[in-house]
Amino acid sequence: MLVAVDIGNTNIVLGFLEGDEIVGTYRITTKADHTSDEYGLMLTEFLAMSGYSANDVDDVVICSVVPKVMYSFRASIVKFLKIEPMIIGPGIKTGINVRVDDPKSLGADILAGCAGAYFTYGGPALVADFGTATTLIYVDGKGTITSGVITTGVRSSAAALWGQTAQLPEVEIARPSSILGTNTRDCMQAGLYYSTLGGIERIIAQFHEEIDEPFQVIATGGLGRMFKDDTDVIDVYDPDLIFKGMKHIHTRNA
User: Fold this and answer.
1) 8 is in an annotated binding site
2) Known SUPFAM superfamilies for this protein (predicted)?
3) 156 neighbors 176 (Cβ within 8 angstroms)
4) Annotated binding residue 107
5) Among 74, 143, 206, 232, which residue has the least CB neighbours within 10 Å?
6) Catalytic-labelled residue, pool 58, 102, 109, 229
7) C-beta separation of 247 from 26 below 8 A
8) What pairs with residue 144 in β-bridges?
């Protein structure tokens, strides 16, 4: 079994893969002060919940955008699983070419997501990841990343809204039943939801306007689930896209 670990700014997401099948996924809140023992205990408990033990794990692949968490998490893998994990980064073969001004600045999560989209659904494709930040990255028909957009995620927008105003409360990030809000919570939810959705639709429309070829839009990320059924600009929503990319990258390098 392969354990794929996506270390993001908000959550650490674990995927357990048997061949091409994802047999379990789990989330941990990203905290820099967790020790390797804490991460190791959580990992082994999640394995047990899926009916596995540490001995069932053949390899581990990690994709991280949070360097300060990497030391303790990597140490937990070495200590509890007795495995030196594969880290997606410089020197790793992804099968994806990068043609942007500074290729080294491209996040490992973006590379893995684009690999998952291209090798699962083909190209050209616009890969939209609804995470802490919302990223839209274009992969052409030859598997080359050529351009992209980075904007605030809906959760980041919400935190700015209630964090910088004196009387607006913290509210659940959710799709509102109507845009006609009659209380503070409903008004905030409607504003956050529809401003994000409208912005994404406009960005995708601009990609279509400036790119002289048809492409599909592949969405992923936990918050993408809220928007996938409320717009016709998203062709595919795949919450496990990054794990599929990490599996592909691991196969190319193992």
Assistant:
1) yes
2) Actin-like ATPase domain
3) no
4) yes
5) 232
6) 109
7) no
8) 97
In the chain, which ranges are E strands?
2-7, 11-18, 21-29, 59-64, 86-87, 97-98, 125-130, 133-139, 144-152, 216-220, 236-237
Q: How far apart are alpha carbons 182 and 126 in whole angstroms? A: 37
Q: Which pLDDT belongs to residue 211?
A: 96
Query: How far is residue 224's CA from residue 135's CA, in Å, rounded to a whole number?
Result: 11
Cα dihedral: 146, 10, 122, 25 (round 10) = 160
Burial class (CB in 10 A: 0-12, 13-18, 19+), 131: buried
Q: Is residue 240 flagged as an active site residue?
A: no
Task: Write down the pLDDT at residue 120.
Answer: 96
**pLDDT tens digits, one per residue of 121-177:** 998 999 999 988 899 999 999 999 999 999 998 888 888 888 888 888 888 888 899
Instruction: Give the architecture-level CATH label for domain 2-87.
Output: 2-Layer Sandwich (3.30)
Under 8 Å between Cβ of 80 and 43:
yes
Burial degree of 81 (CB within 10 A; 0-12, 13-18, 19+): buried
pLDDT given at position 10:
85
> Residue 75 annotated as binding?
no
> Does 12 count as an annotated binding residue?
yes
Strand-by-strand arrangement of the 86-87 sheet: 21-29, 11-18, 2-7, 59-64, 86-87
3-state helix, strand, coil in the chain (%, to 5): 40, 25, 35
What tens digit of pLDDT does each residue of 74-83 get?
999 999 999 9
Q: Has 135 been labeled as part of a binding site?
A: no
Which residue ranges make up each domain of the chain?
A: 2-87, 97-245
Q: Which CATH superfamily is domain 97-245 in?
A: ATPase, nucleotide binding domain (3.30.420.40)
Determine whether 44 is exposed, middle or buried from the number of CB atoms within 10 Å of its CB (0-12, 13-18, 19+).
middle
